[in-house]
Amino acid sequence: MPVTSKLRRLYADMKIKHKLVLSTTFILIVYFSFTFLAQQWAFSIYDEEIYDKTSQVLNMTSASIENELHKTLDVTFNVIADNQIQQYLMRIKNDDTLSSYDELYIDQKMTHQLIYYAANQKNVRSMTLINSKGEEYAVGNRVRLSEAKKREIIQTGRDASGSTRWMYHNQTQNTLMAVREIRSYTNLEFEHLGTLVVFVDIDRIARELSYGMGDGQNEFLILNEEGTLFPAEPLVDIYANQLDFAAKQGYRIEEFGGQSYFVTHIHSQITGWTYVNVTPFNQVFEKITLLKQLVFAALILIFIIIIMGGMRFARSIVRPIDNLIEKMKHLQKGNFEKAEASAMNDAYVQKDEFGLLHRNFRMMTQRINELIRDNYKKQISIRETEFKALQAQINPHFLYNTLESINWLAKTNKQTQISHMVESLGYLLRNAISQREPLIPLKEEVQLVQHYITIQKYRFEERLDFHMDIPAALEQVLIPRLTLQPLLENAIQYALEPMIEPCRITLCAERAGENVLLTVADNGPGMEPALLDKVNRGEHRSEGKGIGLMNIKERIDITFGEPYGVHVDSKSGQGTQVQIYLPMEVRQEHV
Q1: So what's the architecture of 81-206 in CATH?
Q2: Omega into 563 within 30° of 0, i.e. cis?
């Protein structure tokens, strides 16, 4: 069976209240899922707007900074292309016979030219020119260079092949160095003449042009491949978190020191630097986060309220149905009195469709109970009439007197067998037509059986093998009159008479919990399964004119109720066993 069919059948078999709750829950989940996704989409749009605004400011800042740096590049180009500086550097490199005066003269001229180029550059802290012999010409706030640093600068400039390289000075982190090699352009020889180093105050440039991005808890950073160019001591160590800024621009939320930050970055194609703006997440998104939490909590609260309301609504619908089912179960078990009492106990019946069902069920139960009572009364009346008619068929006095005369005549002629048979027959007749109560002790019924067996013994002699086992503790148990004798009569008729060999008939009584089990068994020819099934269902009628098995069943059912009765068990060729199940009732003697 496909899985969908199993699920469909499982849903169809569920109780109505479970169906209502499940359906409501499914609809709510779909609805709230859509609402949550729409909310996340709206918040993502807001995040994009925040990024766009930050990115615009970051673009303006980076463009302004690079514009200032481009001015520095222009200065470096003007210096290395200056004709006088080229001549002085060429003379120093090629003339080894310069006097001290010449060297002092050249030094003054070189310094004058550097001052000229640096004078109008507010972001240039100083300029240093290193000639081919390693001698320095410096203007402005001169920065002392160690020999190792000087060699590194010269090598960096030569590796750049005429272009500008940016470097940090180790001792002054807020000072950026623009390094450029000076080459001879005479005759296009491009001979190395020296190295120009321009010290730029990047800290001042960044702070002036960051448009407030570094104010408060926000932080503006400039990164290159080697580390952080600005600021010298950042509040957030980007490199410690190993963030990847391979994309040209973008934004993300990162954790620094246990706190969330909104990080926006732009990569410059001109300088190769990455400009980063770091904003505490809570500062920007505090209200948005609070709004998200409130919306989420409201959705959860609404979901719980609707589910509880749905369950309450489902119970209000299902409770009348459950009550009606409980009442129907009483009917199913045959407890019509209890079903009627349960229906009458309803203090208030609704006026909706469920109330109509309850009212109709109550009326139906009352009607059924009335019919059952009337039917029981009619059945009892019929049985009593039939029994009295059977008793009235014989004139008791005539029979008693006749049998008594036959008994004395037999005794006079010493006919003992005839005398015993007549006495037993007289006992049977007196009990059959007696007007006493319908329930008698088992002891009296056993006496009736013994007299009946006495008569049949004289008839069948050794062919009748009768045995009886009645415990003394069960002799006072009440049973309907003429219950055992008809069963023995059936055993003789259907088991003994068809047989040639002796037939064993057994009558025994035993206690079964709080009840009594009476058994009449024989080893006769037994019954076919089809006939046995009809007998147990009450569809087979006896061919005799005596009190049949159905009569005994109906009297037990009327007297004690449905749980008690008669059951026949038989197998072809193995005999028959009739069991009577009765309650342990004993007559209470009044003192």
Answers
A1: 2-Layer Sandwich (3.30)
A2: no
